[in-house]
C-alpha cells in the first residue's frame, strides 16, 4: 500500500524522534565515560549564553509586566493587593520563566545546531569524521549538550530576576503597590525548593534543546531545503518536548505534598 505524504511525514517524525531519544542516552553514556572535545565547549557556551541573553531578558521583562497587570487588575478589585506578588511567584517564577527561556533558546540555539550539523550531513562532512576515526557524538553533540545544560539554567535565573523586576515596576506604576509589599509577597510564596526546581527545569530543557537540535541535524537527508526543514522541525519538536517535560515535572513535584 502506498503511503500518503502525510503518513510518510508522520512516520518520518516518529523515527527521527526515536533517534533523538537514543542519542539522548548515548550522550549521557559518553559523558559518563569522559569522551568529549573540551575545546569546543566554550564556543557553544557563548552561543547558548551571552549571545542569547538579550532576547531572554527582553521577553521576560515584558512577560513579567504583562502578567502582573493582568493579575493585579483582578486581585485589586477584591482588596487582595498583598497577594499580587504571591500569584506572580506561583505562576511566572515556577512556570513562565523556565518555559519562555527554553523556547527562546530552542528558537535561537537549537535551530542553529540543527542547521549547522544538517549542513555538515548533506555535504558529507559527518562521513569525513568517521573516516578520521572521530565519533560525531563526541566531537559535535557532547560540547553542545554540555553548553546548553550549563547556560540554560543560568539564563533562566536571569529571566526570573528580570521578570520580577518587570512585575515590581508594573505593580507600582499602574496599581501603586509598593515594591517592598510585592517582593515580600513573592518571598512568602516562593520557597527555596522552588528555586531548585527552576534550575532543574532549565537543565532538562537545555539538554533537550541540544539533543533534539543535534539529532535532527544528524538525520538530515537531501540538500539545502531539507536543512531548513530540519531546523524548523527541531524547534517545534523541542517546544513540544519542553511542555511535556514541564507537565510531567508538575505532576511529580508540585502534586507531592512535600514540595
TrEMBL record:
Signal peptide: none annotated. The chain crosses the membrane at residues 12-31, 51-69, 145-175, 195-219, 231-254. It is a multi-pass membrane protein. Keywords: Membrane, Transmembrane, Transmembrane helix, Transport. InterPro entries: ABC_MlaE_roteobac, Permease_MalE. The keyword Membrane applies. It is found in: Membrane. The keyword Transcription does not apply. Its main location: membrane. Belongs to the MlaE permease family. This is MlaE family lipid ABC transporter permease subunit. It comes from Plectonema radiosum NIES-515.
